## 1
Amino acid sequence: MSRLILPILIICLAVPLIASEFWLTQILGRSLILGITALSLTFLTAYLGVVSFAQITLAGVAGYTVAYFSANTAGIGIELPWMITMLLALAFATLAGGLIGLIAKQSVGIYSIMITLAISMAFFYFTRQNYSIFNGWTGFSGITAPAVFGVDFGDPVAFYYLCLATAFIAVGLVICFVASPLGLATQGVRDAARRVRSLGIPTSTVIVSAYAFSGFIAGMGGVLNVWHQERISSFSVGLGPTIDILIISVIGGMRHPLGAFIGAIAYVLIDTYAIDLISRDRFNTVIGLVLLVIVIASPEGILGTLKSVKERIKNVTN
Amino acid sequence: MVLNLKKIAAAGVLAASVLATPAYAADNIKVGVISILEGAFAALGQDGIRGAELAFIEAGNKAAGKDVEIVVMSSDASPDSAVNAARKLIEQDKVDIIVGPLSGSEGIALRDLSKGYKGVTFINGSSAAQDATFRDGSDNFFRFGGDGAQWMAGVGTYAYKELGYKKVAIVAEDYSFPYTQVLGFMSEFCGAGGRVPEKFWTPIGAKDYSSIVYAIPDDVDALFVALGGADAVNFLTQYNQAGGSKPIIGGTITIDQSILDSKGPFRKLLVGTPAGTPTVSDFDGEEWKAFATSYTKAFPDGLSAPSIFAHHYYMAGKAALLALEQVKGDLSNDHKAFRAALTKLEFVTPTGGTMRLDENRNGIIDSFITEVFEREDGTYGNRVLKVVRNVSQTLGYDADKFRAMGPVSRDNPSCP
Amino acid sequence: MKFFFIVFFNGLTLAALYFIAACGFTLIFGLMRTVNMAHGVLLLFGAYVGYEFVELTGQWSLGILAGGIGAAVVGAILQTTILGRYQGDELRQTLITIAISIIMADLMLWGWGGLTYQIALPEMLQGGVRLPLLNVGYSSVRLTLMIIAVVIGVLLWLLIAKTKLGIIIRAGVDDRTMLEALGFDTKKIFIIVFAIGSMLAGMAGVISGSALSVAPGTDFQFLLSSLVVVIVGGMGSVGGAALGALLIGLAEQYGLAYAPTYGVVFTFVIMVAVLAFRPQGILGKAEK
């Protein structure tokens, strides 16, 4: 896999030379953002062994923080310098992640899905009903990406590079975290919690830290998402986006951080173009069928399938 | 293996076909239509699309001699999805004009988006939030129709003076569109001397209203119900089953054709319900009959009469076509001439009035007080009790005074 | 005070509906560990089939039967053709059922349109009766819901506690490998269980389509309420589902009556609180 990093990097950097603005922002930018958020889920699933439905909630915490502390058209919140806003957003998302970890630390398997789903739904309804902080149903709009040292991140090319850089940082952070002692302990908890405990490592601290770290990653996606959409509302943290993130992670493949991004691109392409491929009334059937086929045909996600194809080709040529 | 290869090949073809820039002939005019085609509002969204298509079908899909092509995108009632749909239409499909969206918060989202796309003209579909045009408007966002408050014109006065109701309780969904409708009702009703002692804001999609039903004070004279779709059905059924007997005044979508054409016994509960609406399914006028006939002919599997959504998307499409004719299809210079034509446009609406815009690019409309009745064939429709012409967005108030009342919310307005 | 009791009563009747809707889900979840995200669309499908039958025959009970059978057939087909192959792979099954629910919801939108459907009740259940003591009018059909819930609860309990299938199901909950080792064809049992669970969903669809109404989106609502009820109560336990339904029904009604703004949040806060302290639900058995 490491041999591929350089070519991938070059392709990613060169894309703005050929892609239209639409592709840069709506397909690639959106894919990178969704990929980062999905990465926070694949991280939890691959290394802690739990499936969380609350990653969109964590991204939402960061997103709402950005909206609240930026200029917006809702007339709610305090405007702060973008740097402070961004740091606050990441801090809140990390805290929220830790809090979810604290609540869900006893839950594994299907129960971790359920408790995080409940948290995510509670947050969703709260944002929809609360007008003093979250501006309810309508939410915030009119938020723009900042301009830093003369670079306006509202510009498609600049924004694409921002997303790309963030994605690489996110992947790098995950790789570093996994290799760190804490990361090793996380994988230990996944495989044999009792043994980790008998080594004198408190498992709940490990679990809470892993959730908090996933909150940080999801928060990065959440900040970018608000700058990209220029808005956030209760809909952004609802059940639909929650399931989308799960779908993205699974179709991409949970074993490797890159899977989240491949899943995201596949998802965004289907979501954007299904309506053009078939009559406008039945595009959801297409989306469902594609999902079904991917889930059935490739247990390891698209990335897993690509790998096994590669190996088979290798076997044939040998 | 074979399967995998096939899949990869298919994916490649797919990718190639979408990467290729669509052929774009300068002589074509492309119109993107955004409506809700999935989830709980799908029936409404489909009817919106029918309305927009009808306008273009009637014009032979031509304007000023140029071909007009329609591209449809679906949103899911969320502002995010409306924005994504619009961006795709603009940047990928290269549309010149966008017609839509359907619901209130989506409208505000597209108004904000329109400020960043000077080369595209947005014509609102049926979204009826007050703020989409009234506060913070955008000069390329037009609404050839009213907002939710305008649609209630005359109802408050009618309820107080003619029906003699002094105290009315309100049951409405807890979001921006019903807030606006309640404003429209209360500004007249309270102004005439009526009182609204209690407002029940219920979460959209609530199934069970039974505890609301029993919380309604005994001493009110009537209920103002601004609920849509299944929510309206569930509330009315439960209110009736619990022995509730207060007369009901309907919000606009509570008596819309999309509810009257639903299936089930609840509909007879609505018979005789007065309501405010700009769309009267059984309007007795030449223009409406022509419109309804044309609708039924083009869409035999549509509703039994055009809904408010078909009606408003139709007017949006028609406004675009008429203005295009006037400027001979000239969209140069960021649609300068086209927008000037839209601003000054006047045309006869299906309900026989004259549609024109105010300085905020919001329609000055005719609204109606209607009642639900059972047609001879056993289906249900609306007929006119009273016509209120020339309803402006400020509901006849001085603009500054109206603005000073502040944006609508759960607590604004209030007259307990 | 009177209002307080009425709300309590509303909570009970709503709990009855939630229980009816959730017991198919808990049955499937309990034995097969399948989180059937297609539960909601099966319920909606049952409601549509039931509507057609009631329109055709005028018989409400036939409608319930038809809705149940319709959903059971679809459920059996799903388990036989797709889901059965991935038994034990929980996440994959969850995703497959999500995909199926997206497809089925869209196909039903095609078939029945997006308008709201309400199924006609038999004459004796229309309207309301006066409640003694509280002296208010109350909907007959809601009272009937409680009876139906009790009947379904007792039947399910009998099925699980007294029949051979029930013994096998209970054995399956505790130790599936052993059951297979004993030579039981779990594949066939799973199809039967899935069909029964789907049938319950379909019948619940007809019942809620008559007591309230159904429309696109109803599938999602009942899926979510069933998830919450079953998770709070404890999976696979009929008593747990009843308890969960009671808790959620009451919370929802009291929320609506006394704190309408944040009432909807309560349900999920309860769920979070229960799961934080008892991850397996109130009456659920701890995983070994």
## 2
Amino acid sequence: MLENVKEKIVKSQVFRSIFRHGFPDNDLNRAYVVFSNVFLHIHPVKVRRSALRMRYTFCLGGITLFLFIMLTVTGIWLMFYYTPYTGLAYSNIQDIQFVIFGGNLMRDLHRFAAHGMVLFVWLHMTRVFLTGAYKAPREFNWVVGVVLLVNTLILSWTGYLLPWDQLAYWAVTVGTKMASYTPFIGQNGPWGAQLGFLPTNDIMFMLIGGTVVGQNALIRFYVLHCVVLPLVVTVFLAVHFWRIRKDGFSGPL
Amino acid sequence: MENKVTREIFPRDSRKSYGLVELMKGTVPIVRKEPEDTVYVWPNLILIEVICALLVTAGLILLVQFVHAPLRSLADPSTTPNPMRAPWYFLGLQELLVYFDPWYAGVALPGMIIVGLMVFPYVDTNPKGTGYFTLTERPFAIFNYSFGFALWWVTIVIGTYLRGLDWQWYWPWSNHLEHMNPALVTLVPLHIVFVNFLHVSKDIAKGLCDILFFAYFAIGMAIPYFFMRKFYDSLGGARYFVFMLFFLSMMGVGFKIILRLLFNIKYIVVTPWINV
């Protein structure tokens, strides 16, 4: 009976239009699963048996990717309750924390997954370094990785402002103040004033949209945090994974 | 089914340029790989990845039962918290503000760290040590990486646990509520030390400091060039110059921290535009 139903489903037009192959209980279908699925096809169809050993990569890059996905999911959830307006942002966070069902969990997960992502990017980089995996022909993928590291840090830092509490406000005030010390293009930096840069036209002004961290800074950081930087990371991630497949794996994979 | 080697292995006939090597039972062709060397990604690797993802999720959910995302009082531009701490991953840079001016600690140095990391694969010409963990085959590369990140992590620990009010140095057993007297420490530029001890004029002392600064880079560049010829030759001129510039700058950060902490030296080089 059950076999019959299974047979009917697998052979139906709807099932075949979606999966294009039967259950992966034979080698042909196991190959089809991987290369006919957009999410799985970043893998090769077969890997060396030794690639299953954990003590080479320790899954560090994979965990980093998973944390990024988790941050995307929890981040989108939080966006439903958050308004990037200085008069509302803080009370929105209070609502998320004390009123909305599951809000506390989602905010905590988002916060600690973010810390975790910074940590795991670094661990992954250290593993790649210690196994010499950045050497030719994989030099450029290391460079892409450094871009991803920098993006991870900026993502984390732009998110830091959004709760609009004292911690957020002053960390970002100090951080953006640094921009005004940029040589040549910051008003406090070497040769900045000589080149005509003022508090109202230098690089810090461009970054926060004003002379102090305020509404303009909040909306800028919000858009960077929720739209621009995740897109940039996604594009570089695609390149990063593509290059692993193209340049080959360094270890016993 | 995995591809199984049947025990039938045919001996090469020395009179022929071709031969049947072995017969195998299997469902797919294998080229250039040993018969039992590979496995299917589904389900073998996918399973590991799913387990990994589940463990991370479980670990995070467990973690947030004990620690929570902080939320302080509403942002208030008129009340500055003291001390004011950056997020932990930027504490290293914040700590460097003690030793360098903001244009260097906050802008130039982070830029150099990023570029320095990016050029690493291009200046590491050691062909050994790809694909496995090794310390003995590439000790110098690992030393550089470890030194840089030791500096990073040590400054994070200092910023987190050893800095208190006004970003002064507080031991765990110090009174964290009492302001330190900043007058206890007087920071001086290096040339003032020369003026006091060598009894030379300020201008000559400044000149000495400039010479010292450039001599550090010049001698640093020269020593391996003359005495570690193999190292220089393995890199070539351009790679050598780029690597040594980053290497000496990184070491210089360490030296400056020591000078500042032990001898209260504020600047090495003082110019009308920038001080280092």
